[in-house]
Design brief:
- The complex is a heterodimer of chains A (397) and B (147).
- By secondary structure, chain A is of the alpha/beta class.
- Helices cover 37% and strands 17% of the residues of chain A.
- Chain A has 2 domains: 3-121 and 220-244, Peroxisomal Thiolase, Chain A, domain 1, CATH 3.40.47; 152-216 and 246-396, Peroxisomal Thiolase, Chain A, domain 1 (3-Layer(aba) Sandwich), CATH 3.40.47.10.
- In chain A, strands 3-2-4-5-1-6-9-8-7 form a 9-stranded mixed sheet.
- In chain A, a hairpin with a 5-residue loop joins strand 8 and strand 9.
- In chain A, helix 1 (22-37) crosses helix 3 (64-71).
- Chain A is globular and about 55 Å long.
- With 147 residues, chain B is mostly beta strands.
- Chain B folds into 2 domains: 23-69, no CATH class; 71-147, OB fold (Dihydrolipoamide Acetyltransferase, E2P).
- Helix content of chain B is 7%, strand content 30%.
- Chain B contains 1 helix and 8 strands, in the order H-E-E-E-E-E-E-E-E.
- In chain B, strands 6-5-4-7-8 form a 5-stranded antiparallel sheet, with no helix packed on it.
- Classes of the chains: A alpha/beta (397), B mainly beta (147).
Chain lengths: 397, 147
């Protein structure tokens, strides 16, 4: 059974929404998605929530879906909450796809919402420090948490690639930062559109390993929602439907304990191969028009070029050098600005990446619109401790 | 300011204290505290040696048995920590490197802090030896130095 995306509801990414609770943000995104689909809330059979555990802890709400379900007027309908680190949102879309493809539902709503900045470090008064402390809880309590601060586990993945292949270089990583911050300038939903130079990125403060401040993804507050429907209902709405043509996911840590894998992101390769097989994609560089992927750090975006099969292993840096992944390049990657320029909070982040590709394929991405020649795009989300969770989704029109 | 744009923020303190065990891996920490020796587990079925120890082999799901591994090993990957971001590592001295270390006699690796002396560089392939100060309750209670 074919499953289509018929409604997209994306909110602007912000450092903080001081005037909105997480369920108020969710309700705004849901209203936008239903308006976009042109259907009432009564048509929805099922809700899938993309709510990352770390963020439900950050808002002091262990079972947030119950509160949201009531607030968005869906009480009584079935619901399910999905969590998988920063891949949470894409995993929620995949789950909603399965709900419809199995015939259990005709219309499924995917909702993600997240607020990290409710946390505060009492000593410094900084909200960011409180939040960064909390994301350490993603890691293994006994073996990782005591020695691994913040996002160091992402730096390990990139450093291991540098050890193995001699790259990406710091300049290549800086070029990704310049690209994504620059793309965000043309995205009215983006949090951090900045015209940067490679030199400015290279001079920004070092974080962990090769990653500097401007190499690192944002932490934001926001919400996103999508409406998915079966083919019969999707065709009734009378507008361009974006079909889900391939889905794949995988859960495998990129470092411990399978150290033979060091230097790659095996979960992303496995998830994407599954999605490509389902969508019958054999040559992604020549069959896709656009990719939105999870640039947790600039080095990870370059590694993803390799895991997604756009080039051979160790050659990802060449693609940014040659401008292949620029918005005007052969295969634009993150024209939205990605997690580095647009915004990121696990849950809404993956849902919005799928929504962005859907808007691109509908030709409704405004100033960030890329050329659509093949009518196909890819969302590739990753996250979790040591980059362990991956979900890739091929969309087509 | 209109009523619509006024917001009320409250600051509360929610303090949790945890007291948890390391489960079947407890002996790893007890042996380090009492005898300064690293223990892993070996799978009698497939021979894989786990350090960090696992009481069940993840490769074949057999119950494992304890074996001693060496206190020296090789760095598989090293990441200098420039910003501790909320994690207090000050007791280990500065500068610190978080490294993936495979001890001799083990087939797996774990993350630990390496504290290089001035001018030393920790990188893939570096040889390291464990250094202890006191009781070992967590993996942050010991570190490694370059050999």
């Amino acid at each position: 059974m074919r499953v289509g995306i018929i409604g997209v509801g994306l909110l602007p990414w912000k450092v903080r929404y001081p005037n909105k609770t997480y369920y108020e943000l969710a309700a705004e995104a849901v209203r936008k998605a239903l308006d976009d689909a042109g259907i009432g809330k009564d048509r929805v059979d099922n809700v899938v929530y993309g709510l990352a555990d770390v963020y439900t802890m950050a808002i002091r709400q262990a079972c947030a879906s119950t509160i949201i379900q009531d607030y968005i007027g869906m009480a009584g309908k079935s619901s399910l909450t999905v969590h998988g680190g920063a891949a949470t949102g894409a995993l929620a879309v995949k789950t909603a796809y399965a709900e419809i493809a199995s015939g259990m539902s005709e219309v499924s709503l995917v909702v993600g919402t997240g607020k990290g900045m409710d946390l505060i470090d009492p000593e410094t008064g900084k909200r960011s420090l409180g939040f960064l402390k909390s994301i350490t809880f993603d890691l293994d309590t006994t073996w990782d948490q005591p020695v691994e601060p913040g996002a160091t586990h992402f730096a390990f993945v990139v450093q291991a690639h540098i050890d193995k292949y001699g790259g990406p270089t710091e300049e290549q990583m800086a070029k990704v930062s310049v690209k994504n911050h620059g793309n965000a300038l043309d995205n009215p939903l983006a949090q951090s559109g900045i015209k940067l130079t490679v030199e400015e990125v290279l001079k920004s403060p070092r974080m962990s390993g090769p990653a500097k401040f401007y190499d690192s993804c944002l932490y934001s507050e926001g919400a996103a929602a999508l409406v998915l429907a079966n083919e019969k209902i999707a065709r009734e709405i009378g507008r361009k439907v974006v079909w889900i043509e391939g889905v794949g996911s995988s859960n495998k840590r990129s470092s411990l304990p399978d150290w033979d894998d060091l230097g790659g992101i095996p979960c992303q390769y496995i998830a994407t191969q599954k999605a490509y097989r389902m969508a019958r994609i054999k040559d992604p560089l020549n069959e896709l028009d656009v990719i939105e992927l999870h640039d947790l750090q600039t080095g990870i975006e370059i590694m993803s070029y390799e895991e997604l099969g756009l080039c051979a292993r160790g050659e990802g840096g060449r693609l940014i050098d040659e401008g292949v992944t620029e918005r005007t390049g052969r295969l634009p990657v993150n024209p939205s600005g990605g997690m580095i320029g647009c915004g990121h909070v696990a849950g809404p982040s993956g849902i919005s990446r799928v929504g962005e590709v859907a808007l691109q394929l509908r030709g409704e991405a405004g100033k960030r619109q890329v050329k659509i020649a093949h009518g196909r795009g890819l969302t590739a989300c990753i996250g979790g401790p040591g980059v362990s969770q991956a979900c890739s989704i091929v969309l087509g029109v | 300011m209109s009523d619509e744009t006024r917001i009320l923020e409250v600051q509360i303190k929610d303090e949790f204290h945890f007291k948890f065990s390391h489960g079947g891996a407890s002996r790893f920490f007890i042996e380090l505290s009492e005898n300064r020796r690293f223990m892993g587990t070996r799978c009698p079925q497939c021979g894989h040696v786990w350090c960090p120890p696992r009481i069940i082999c993840s490769r074949c799901l057999s119950s494992t048995e304890w074996v001693e591994v060496r206190d020296e090993g090789e760095v598989l990957c090293a990441v200098p920590i420039h910003m501790s971001l909320g994690l207090d590592l000050s007791h280990l001295g500065s500068p610190q490197v978080c490294a993936l270390i495979k001890l001799d006699g083990s087939d797996t690796c774990f993350k630990a802090i390496v504290a290089p002396k001035l001018g030393e560089t920790v990188q893939k392939g570096s040889r390291v030896r464990a250094v202890f100060k006191g009781t070992v309750q967590t993996i942050a209670d010991f570190s490694f130095e370059l050999i």
